[in-house]
Amino acid sequence: MFAYSNLAVLNVSFVVVLSLALSGVALCSVLHLVGAKWQNEVKHLATSLFALFPLAFVLLVVILLNGPAFFSWWGHKVGVHASIPSWYQPHWFIAREVIGMLFMMVLYWVFIKRQNVCDRSPADAASFHRVATVIPFFFVLYSTMIAWDFEMTLVPEWHSAIYGLQQFVSNFGMFLAFLVVWVSAWNARQNQAHPIAAYIYNHIAQMLLAFTLLWIYTYYSQYLTIWYGDLPDETGRVFGMQNGDYAFLWWSVLVLKFVVPFTALSFPGPRHNIAAINAVAICIIVGTLFERYVWIGGVTGKGDYPFVATIVIGGAVALIGYFLVKTRLQGTQLVKE
Questions:
Q1: What is the torsion angle, in degrees rounded to the nearest 10, for the CA atoms of residue 238, residue 240, residue 243 and residue 246?
Q2: Residue 336 domain-assigned (yes or no)
Q3: How many Å apart are CA 311 and CA 307, to the nearest integer?
Q4: Do the beta carbons of residue 195 and residue 204 sit within 8 Å?
Q5: Angle at Cα 143 formed by Cα 266 and Cα 167, nearest 5°?
Q6: Considering the domain boundaries, does residue 337 fall inside one?
Q7: Would residue 20 count as lying in a domain?
Q8: What values do phi and psi take at 201, rounded to 5?
Q9: What is the number of structural domains in the chain?
Q10: Is 0.90 surpassed by the pTM of this model?
Q11: Each residue's pLDDT tens digit, 295-332
Q12: DSSP secondary structure, 11-59, as one string
């Protein structure tokens, strides 16, 4: 009924929304563990993205109910495709996705509750620290599962040992870029309860530069291994994205996620210029959206550009997400009614 190029927009929306929901608490956990003093400036804003989990869960249910339209391996018996292991069967897939998301929601909820009372007593601080120490582990484990299930195995015979790392590094960089733009918009508001200090921009910009370098490292570690090995099962998907109908998106990703951020953020001037940081952040966000669509929608290297689906589905998801986060911010009194 709908072309896969249009359905892929829903898959991309799910991955992006889930990544934002996961990354907010993950950042707060890491900042706490390394003793970053600026964690108090952004922790309540970042953890408010927890409100996106219900939206991510609804998108997950929609995708699971229409599994055959999204996953080429769906419904095949074990052994039909030699490259499909036994755990890529609908019942196992549904079970791990639902259980995994519910587990992360509960874990993150506990983290936020402990964070809110961590200054009350030494016992509360110790309890919060214990929860914070396990967040990065489960973030990496769960993010890797999402990367494999919703992107890597869309082509059953295609495998990459580094793909999970490359994907969630890219998505976390997108979250940092989103956070920069969000902080700017937050400080421009008239009804926020607590403005965020201006020095935060430089700290996030430095992290953006670090994740830009980490992303390009994982990107080329994967690409050069595939290119040098020159195995048809591996090169077919990559060269299809690189040279097929979505070639423009493929090459734009490199420019938007590496050339622009690295060139700008390597120098202290742009890192202390709010307008420059926001421009770079927008490039990273757009580049990541292109990247996610190329890997999800460009599995065959062929297809139309889903302009209408992007506006309708992407716009609806963004609008719902906005109101969910806004409602949570109002509930925590970070935004005045």
A1: -100
A2: no
A3: 6
A4: no
A5: 45
A6: no
A7: yes
A8: -60, -45
A9: 1
A10: yes
A11: 999 998 999 999 999 999 999 999 999 999 999 988 87
A12: HHHHHHHHHHHHHHHHHHHHHHHTT-TTHHHHHHHHHGGGGGHHHHHHH
